Amino acid sequence: MSNVLFNIFPNERYMDLTIYQYGWEQCAPAHSYGPAARNHFLFHYIIKGKGILYNTNERGETHLYNLKRHQGFLISPQQVNTYIADKEDPWEYTWIEFDGLRAKEFLDTAGLTSESPIYRSSSHDLRNQMKEEMLSIVHHENHSSLYQIGHLYLFLDLLIQSSFNHRELSTGRLKDFYIREAISFIEQNYSHSITVEDIAIFCNLNRSYLGKLFRDELNQTPQQFLIYYRMNRAAELLKFSDMTVGEVGKLVGYPNQLHFSRAFKNIFELPPSTWRKENKLYKPAEEI
Fold first, then answer.
1. According to the model, what pLDDT value does residue 143 have?
2. Is 62 within the bounds of a domain?
3. Staple 242 to which of 1, 20, 138, 284, CB 3.0 to 4.6 Å?
4. Is the bond preceding residue 35 a cis peptide, omega within 30 degrees?
């Protein structure tokens, strides 16, 4: 039997970096996960023990890595991986699944990519500090989302500093400017019937190039990002206000309630009314 702690991050309103889930596990001998792919970046740090990672790159080539304590491994979005604990000395590890506008940039700076997924440290002290930041997130699941995001930044800073293959942080990238402009336009106009073409025109970019920027930097298309942004805004309104489902849909750019309900269910796997019943915090005066 494995011992495991697992939590899902409750707040997805952070754009530069956000957490999706995190945990710790003392694996049973030969415990395996996969083959499977993730939608976001997932980093494991091995506290003790050993295991194997099978990693498939974009060309369909599979690589095998024998890993041990004090090492780590990155799983990139849509990349198929399988990892297996050693039969005699199964690993204990902690992990964080995260993403955001800056996630790929920070991981690139740490020297971690889909082609080079293995973390090796250059500093014992910094490596231990990084591990403690990860465990601080795992063991403080009842703290605020701001607390958790703060420790995510500290973890990534220490990941970069301690990584044997780290590079200098890049600054002033033009594509970052275009991404920020596109997101700013979405934030200000998501309640209107905007299209990807509208976003591209605002940024003075070709639509296909805008799509490439989003796929390269955010691992999703502009349309997916727009829907994701609208649905998270809708979730806030359902959770904290007494607006009707139809009113919420209109406010996030869906005048047709049926279309809104379908879009919401695609993201949260529940209809808006059901999701509200399970998550609502605000109660109108007449209900108190």
1. 83
2. yes
3. 284
4. yes
pLDDT at position 170 over 90: no
Residue 131, both tokens: 């591990």
Two tokens, residue 266: 């695609």
Q: How far is CA 117 from the centre of its chain?
A: 17
pTM here? 0.63
Report percent pLDDT > 90 for the chain: 53
8 Å CB contact between 109 and 168: yes
Strands of the sheet with 118-119, listed across from one edge: 3-8, 18-26, 92-99, 41-48, 72-75, 118-119
Q: Which two tokens stand for residue 127?
A: 């490596």
**Closest CA relative to residue 104, chosen from 209, 266, 261, 218:** 218
Tell me, rounded to whole angstroms, the distance of Cα 179 from its chain centroid.
Answer: 17
Burial class of residue 169, CB neighbours in 10 A (0-12, 13-18, 19+)? exposed
Residues 128, 211 within the same domain: no
CA distances from 217 to 108, 109, 202 (A): 11, 14, 19
Lowest mean pLDDT among 5-9, 71-75, 151-155, 217-221: 5-9
Strand partners, 73: 44, 118
Q: Which of 132, 162, 192 is a domain's end point?
A: 162
- Report which of residues 180 and 245 the model is more confident about: 245
Question: In the 8-state DSSP scheme, what is residue 190?
Answer: T
Residues 240 and 260 in one domain: yes
Instruction: State the Cα–Cα distance between residues 82 and 10, nearest whole angstrom.
Output: 27
Region 170-197: mean pLDDT is: 82
